[in-house]
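[SOLVED] Predicted holo structure with S-adenosylmethionine

Edit: marking solved, answer below. Original request kept for reference. I posted the sequence and ligand SMILES and asked for the 3D complex as structure tokens.
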Amino acid sequence: MALLSLLANGEKAVDVIKTSLDTGLLEALEPGGRSLKELSECIGAVPHRLSKFMECLESLGLCSHRAVDDDIASTLYWPAAGLREGVIDVFGEKSIEKDRDAYPWRWLHGRLQEVLTGELSIPGEEFSWPPVGTDQFANFERSMAAGLGPVIEAFRIHRSALWGAGARLLDVGGGDGTLAGQLLTDDPLLSADVFNLENARPLVEEFKKSNGYGERLGFVAGDFLREDLPTGYQVISFVRVLHDWPMAISRLLLAKARSALPNGGRVVICEEFRTERRLARQFFWSYFLMGVDGCHSRLYGVDHYQKMLMEAGFSDIEVLPGPFEIVTAVK
Ligand SMILES: C[S@@+](CC[C@H](N)C(=O)[O-])C[C@H]1O[C@@H](n2cnc3c(N)ncnc32)[C@H](O)[C@@H]1O
């Protein structure tokens, strides 16, 4: 219920958080155990005003304090773990939330009753799923690429468990090629093709040209709803793809991957598997996609995919830990 009080004061809370970043307070607070006097001197604040500011931060769960004596200036403060990094991530210049804000979510705002009854949707020319037109496609793939950090890190950790030297990988629904490109950079013996709708071709070609991947990075145009997946790959990956579709389609895609893989070939699934924190981070898309019926976006736990892989006939099903887990199995 405390959350509801904070939400009712949401704009003010954001004001406090942004100010704490902009004034350098978060940096000053970072070592922990800093007194109100020290913090005030660091940012040029009046101590008794900063003390109330700190109460705001503390009510948001972003810091804690310990009183030392009667003088509030000696009160000591500690930041929540990873506070400054988290604030930069969510509110900084390169924030994913900033990018998301450019999507036409305002079509829905204040009109959710009509959205829920099916009377109001995001107009197709504003956003469709899959995206249509060059601009929609390019904008969407650009924001996807911006959120690939944890995925790239997860692949980096587990690369050697996922494929051997000289493997060929097919990244299904592979966006503009950013992930495939990063995997090629990390493993000079790998080659990779992006499988995506024809609209993605110029994006992948452009990415390939500007990063000099040459023949190691390829593009295969196709619609996985209508066509089989191409053969000739030891690894087929679905990164942030399966959760956008009804379960029957995810099952179909895994069956297609199984048909396309050779015996011993590997399927790799990586996405925001459901946790409380990731669901919170997904809030924007849960809200926005209420108005986009073509996209079924939903976060699933790793167990959901373990079961699907088993039902699809894969073996050696494993969950590899990381910033995002990787669920993988062998044909
Ligand atoms: C949520 S994005 C994920 C992109 C990328 N894998 C990533 O994680 O950044 C889903 C991807 O699936 C592609 N896609 C959607 N429908 C498709 C279809 N019917 N056939 C092939 N690709 C499709 C989209 O173009 C997009 O690249």
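OP edit: The mean pLDDT is 96. Thanks to everyone who chimed in.
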